[in-house]
Amino acid sequence: MKNTVRVRIPKDSYYTLFAEGVLLNLESYGTGHIATLDFSYPVVLYYTFHHHRRLYVIMQPSVNEIFHNNDVSRPFSVIAQLRGRSFDRFKRSLRYIVRKSKGFHEFPAEFYFKLSFLCTHQKNDKINLNRLFYKYYEC
Protein backbone atom coordinates (compact mmCIF):
# COMPACT_ATOMS: atom_id res chain seq x y z
CA MET A 1 0.00 0.00 0.00
CA LYS A 2 1.23 3.43 -0.88
CA ASN A 3 0.34 5.26 2.33
CA THR A 4 1.96 2.90 4.81
CA VAL A 5 5.15 2.99 6.83
CA ARG A 6 6.92 0.02 8.38
CA VAL A 7 8.59 0.48 11.76
CA ARG A 8 11.14 -2.06 12.98
CA ILE A 9 10.78 -2.67 16.72
CA PRO A 10 13.93 -4.46 17.91
CA LYS A 11 14.15 -6.95 20.77
CA ASP A 12 17.16 -7.17 23.09
CA SER A 13 18.82 -3.98 21.86
CA TYR A 14 20.56 -1.17 23.72
CA TYR A 15 17.35 0.84 23.25
CA THR A 16 13.62 0.16 23.16
CA LEU A 17 11.18 1.51 20.61
CA PHE A 18 7.42 1.75 20.82
CA ALA A 19 5.35 3.05 17.89
CA GLU A 20 1.80 4.39 18.10
CA GLY A 21 -0.43 5.15 15.15
CA VAL A 22 -3.17 3.60 13.06
CA LEU A 23 -1.91 0.00 13.13
CA LEU A 24 -2.56 -2.06 10.00
CA ASN A 25 -0.41 -5.13 10.65
CA LEU A 26 2.11 -6.50 13.17
CA GLU A 27 4.60 -9.18 12.13
CA SER A 28 7.05 -11.03 14.37
CA TYR A 29 10.52 -12.07 13.33
CA GLY A 30 13.57 -13.42 15.16
CA THR A 31 14.96 -10.18 16.55
CA GLY A 32 11.76 -8.18 17.06
CA HIS A 33 8.60 -7.01 15.31
CA ILE A 34 7.65 -4.99 12.26
CA ALA A 35 4.61 -2.74 12.65
CA THR A 36 2.87 -1.52 9.50
CA LEU A 37 1.12 1.79 10.18
CA ASP A 38 -1.12 4.06 8.12
CA PHE A 39 1.05 7.03 7.14
CA SER A 40 -1.97 9.19 6.28
CA TYR A 41 -1.93 10.11 9.96
CA PRO A 42 0.97 11.06 12.25
CA VAL A 43 2.94 8.29 13.95
CA VAL A 44 4.44 8.60 17.45
CA LEU A 45 7.82 6.94 18.10
CA TYR A 46 8.93 6.45 21.71
CA TYR A 47 12.65 5.69 22.12
CA THR A 48 14.08 4.82 25.53
CA PHE A 49 17.80 4.50 26.10
CA HIS A 50 19.62 3.68 29.31
CA HIS A 51 19.85 7.28 30.56
CA HIS A 52 17.40 9.25 28.42
CA ARG A 53 14.10 9.17 26.50
CA ARG A 54 13.17 10.63 23.11
CA LEU A 55 9.78 11.02 21.46
CA TYR A 56 9.21 11.88 17.81
CA VAL A 57 5.90 12.59 16.12
CA ILE A 58 6.45 11.93 12.42
CA MET A 59 4.39 12.28 9.25
CA GLN A 60 4.81 12.09 5.50
CA PRO A 61 7.73 14.25 4.40
CA SER A 62 7.31 17.84 3.32
CA VAL A 63 9.52 19.31 0.61
CA ASN A 64 12.20 20.88 2.83
CA GLU A 65 12.28 18.64 5.90
CA ILE A 66 13.17 15.06 5.07
CA PHE A 67 14.68 12.75 7.71
CA HIS A 68 15.79 9.13 7.54
CA ASN A 69 16.00 6.53 10.29
CA ASN A 70 17.06 2.87 10.21
CA ASP A 71 13.93 1.83 12.13
CA VAL A 72 11.49 3.54 9.73
CA SER A 73 11.02 2.29 6.18
CA ARG A 74 10.31 5.66 4.52
CA PRO A 75 11.64 9.21 4.79
CA PHE A 76 9.56 11.43 7.07
CA SER A 77 9.11 14.90 8.56
CA VAL A 78 9.23 15.51 12.30
CA ILE A 79 6.26 17.40 13.75
CA ALA A 80 7.48 17.31 17.33
CA GLN A 81 10.52 16.13 19.24
CA LEU A 82 10.38 15.77 23.02
CA ARG A 83 12.67 14.37 25.68
CA GLY A 84 12.82 13.82 29.42
CA ARG A 85 9.86 15.11 31.40
CA SER A 86 8.16 16.46 28.27
CA PHE A 87 8.25 12.87 26.96
CA ASP A 88 6.41 11.71 30.09
CA ARG A 89 3.88 14.55 29.94
CA PHE A 90 3.11 13.82 26.28
CA LYS A 91 2.68 10.11 26.97
CA ARG A 92 0.32 10.77 29.91
CA SER A 93 -1.64 13.37 27.92
CA LEU A 94 -2.04 11.01 24.99
CA ARG A 95 -3.22 8.27 27.35
CA TYR A 96 -5.83 10.70 28.75
CA ILE A 97 -7.03 11.50 25.22
CA VAL A 98 -7.18 7.79 24.34
CA ARG A 99 -9.58 7.27 27.24
CA LYS A 100 -11.77 10.09 25.92
CA SER A 101 -12.02 8.79 22.36
CA LYS A 102 -11.32 5.83 20.19
CA GLY A 103 -9.33 6.44 17.04
CA PHE A 104 -7.39 9.38 18.42
CA HIS A 105 -4.59 8.83 15.91
CA GLU A 106 -6.85 10.23 13.23
CA PHE A 107 -6.22 13.73 14.53
CA PRO A 108 -4.33 16.01 12.13
CA ALA A 109 -0.66 16.93 12.50
CA GLU A 110 -1.58 20.31 13.98
CA PHE A 111 -3.20 18.55 16.96
CA TYR A 112 0.04 16.73 17.80
CA PHE A 113 2.09 19.89 17.36
CA LYS A 114 -0.15 21.77 19.80
CA LEU A 115 -0.15 18.86 22.25
CA SER A 116 3.65 18.80 22.22
CA PHE A 117 3.70 22.56 22.83
CA LEU A 118 1.42 22.15 25.87
CA CYS A 119 3.63 19.38 27.24
CA THR A 120 6.88 21.27 26.67
CA HIS A 121 5.53 24.35 28.49
CA GLN A 122 3.90 22.36 31.34
CA LYS A 123 0.39 23.47 30.31
CA ASN A 124 -1.06 19.99 29.78
CA ASP A 125 -3.71 20.16 32.50
CA LYS A 126 -7.14 18.61 31.92
CA ILE A 127 -8.74 21.92 30.96
CA ASN A 128 -6.26 22.57 28.15
CA LEU A 129 -6.33 18.94 27.03
CA ASN A 130 -10.13 19.00 26.84
CA ARG A 131 -10.08 22.25 24.86
CA LEU A 132 -7.58 20.80 22.41
CA PHE A 133 -9.48 17.52 22.18
CA TYR A 134 -12.86 19.09 21.41
CA LYS A 135 -11.35 21.53 18.94
CA TYR A 136 -10.25 18.61 16.71
CA TYR A 137 -12.64 15.83 17.71
CA GLU A 138 -15.36 15.06 15.18
CA CYS A 139 -18.34 13.33 16.76
Q: Could you walk me through the main structural features you see in this protein, from its secondary elements to its overall organization?
A:
There is one protein chain. The chain has 3 helices and 7 strands; from the N terminus they run βββββββααα. Helix 1 packs across helix 2 and helix 2 runs antiparallel to helix 3 (126-136). The strands form 2 sheets. A 4-stranded antiparallel beta sheet has the order 2-5-6-7, with helices on one face. 28% of the residues lie in helices and 33% in strands. The chain is globular, with a radius of gyration of 15 Å. The relative contact order is 0.15. The protein has helices at 85-100, 109-120, 126-136, and strands at residues 4-10, 16-20, 23-29, 32-38, 43-48, 53-59, 77-83. It is of the alpha+beta class and 139 residues long. Strand 3 (23-29) and strand 4 (32-38) form a beta hairpin. The two termini are 28 Å apart.
Helix content: 25-40%
Shape, per Cα inertia axes? globular
Overall strand count: 7
- Our count of helices gives 3
Secondary-structure content class = alpha+beta
Element-level helix/strand string: EEEEEEEHHH
Distance between the termini: 28 Å
Oligomer: single chain
User: What percent of residues are in strands?
Assistant: 25-35%
State mean pLDDT (0 to 100 scale). 89
Low-pLDDT sequence parts = none
Q: Taking Cα atoms only, what radius of gyration do you get, to the nearest Å? A: 15 Å
In spatial order, strands of the major sheet run: 2-5-6-7
- Biggest beta sheet summary: 4 strands, antiparallel
